[in-house]
Structures are given as C-alpha cells and as structure tokens.
C-alpha cells in the first residue's frame, strides 16, 4: 500500500510540474500558427551585430547541391519547353495563373525587411519577418533593355532564353516547425516548373537579362489588360519605383547556396560559361545580393 501511495504521489508531482512548465511556456508564445515563438531584432532593440549565425559545413552543402543538380537535370529532360515566366503581381493577375508562396523566415531575432517609399507590389512581410511572394505567370516577351539589368522568375528551367543568364538560389528557411506553403491559383503545390517549395526550403530560378546599351529595348512589354495595375521585376533600374527586400534565412547550420550559368557576350561561340557554384553568396549589382551568413537581398522595381 505504501509503495502504491508513493507511486501515485510521485506521479501527481511530475504531472503538476509539467503543467506549470507548459503554462509558463504558453505565456511566452505569440498568437501565430502552431503557437510558434518568433522574435525580431527590432522588437528586442537589437542590431545585426547581435545576430548569431552559422553556416553548414561544405560537405553538407555539397550533398544538398548534388541532389538538387540531379533533380535539375531530370527536369530538363522532361521539360515541356513552355515559354512563360513569373513577374511580381500588383493587385491581380487577371486571366493569368497566380503563384503564391510563403517563406517562413528565421524565428529568433529575425532581420527580414522590406524597404520602400513608393513601391506597392505584392511581396508582403508579416510582423515576425516572414515573407509572402505573389507572381503572375505570363508569356515571356522580355528582351534585354538599354537602361539596366533585370530578372524574372524562371519556370521552364530547361529552356534558357538566348543572351540570358540562369541564376539559382536555395533558401534554407526556418527549420523549427516550418510554416512554408505554396499555391498555384489557390491549389497547394510542392513544385512549379523548376522551382521547389518542399521540405521547409525554397528553391528559386531566375532569368537574368543584362543591360544592352547598343541593341537593347528602351521599355518593358505591356502584358495584356489582365495586368491593368502593372507588374514588377527584380532589379533597381533608375527612374522606377523600387524596393529592397531582405529574407532572413535559417541562422543555425544554414544551407543557403547559389549557382549561376552566366551568359558572356565577350566569348565568341561559347556565350554560356557553365554553372559556377557560390557556397553562401552570389551578387549581381542592382538585382540580387545573396549575402553571406543566411541573408538574401532582392531588389525589385515596378516596370509597368
């Protein structure tokens, strides 16, 4: 009897402690999906100097890279050669397909931001630094322009346009209780074209059009009445409303990486230089700045 009494008493004590622990834990949680605790640098009064970030070792990144490159090759073999791209939505895509995806950014001391004055495109950040992107999938009428570099979201990565560079970025989003999602016209997806939204990470491909002073166009294409409020592209060409967006990717053991197949007009007969690997960063001035230590910066501007 004494043993049974002691067992019941011990069980009650453990249960009570667990309950107190859970109450204290719940009092610290924010009102957010799955009750996640998320904090930002700004709300804590901290700066970037206070962030603690680590990058995965080269072997881990290399294994991930090999797997993604293998999937890229498989996709290229089954490509439908569709000539469409993604442009950043302004209000509505009309009759065009709409791609929406959310990046669950770093939970602890998040440093994401959207800096803008007049730009009002549909890339939105919530109060905890998570960022949602909206793209309209439209015919690829784009050509190089004389005013500056720009980029669009690539869809059919097995069909690189002539005189265009292929840029790839792997975003290692938040590891803990990840809340990423992606939809096309409201239907949940894990992949769209060569872009992947699975495993709590985001893999994006871009067509990068370099400035062409001699033969480049002086304006961007009008893409039908469906985009009556216009659209935005990646880049920061002077004379257009623009914004700078920073995503704060996973801080611990971050697996961010990029590669690029650059089109170089100075190399006769071999304009594409093959894929160059960038372990934690890639920079194209005025378009992308894939910053070391898990930060990604994207310039955007309203083209029409």
Helix content, binned percent: 10-25%
User: What is the number of E strands?
Assistant: 19
Oligomer: single chain
Strand content: 25-35%
Q: Alpha-carbon distance between the termini? A: 82 Å
Structural shape: globular
Largest sheet, if any?
17 strands, antiparallel
- Could you say which structural class the secondary elements and strand pairing correspond to? alpha+beta
Count of domains: 1
Tally of individual helices: 3
Taking pLDDT < 50 over at least 5 consecutive residues as the criterion, the unreliable ranges are: 1-32
Global Rg: 23 Å
N-to-C order of helices and strands: HHHEEEEEEEEEEEEEEEEEEE
Mean pLDDT: 84
Describe the structure.
With 304 residues, the protein is of the alpha+beta class. It has one domain. Helices cover 16% and strands 32% of the residues. The protein contains three helices and 19 strands. The protein has a 17-stranded antiparallel sheet that branches. The protein has a two-stranded antiparallel sheet with strand order 10-11. The longest helix has 26 residues, at 2-27. The chain is globular. Residues 1-32 have low confidence and may be disordered.
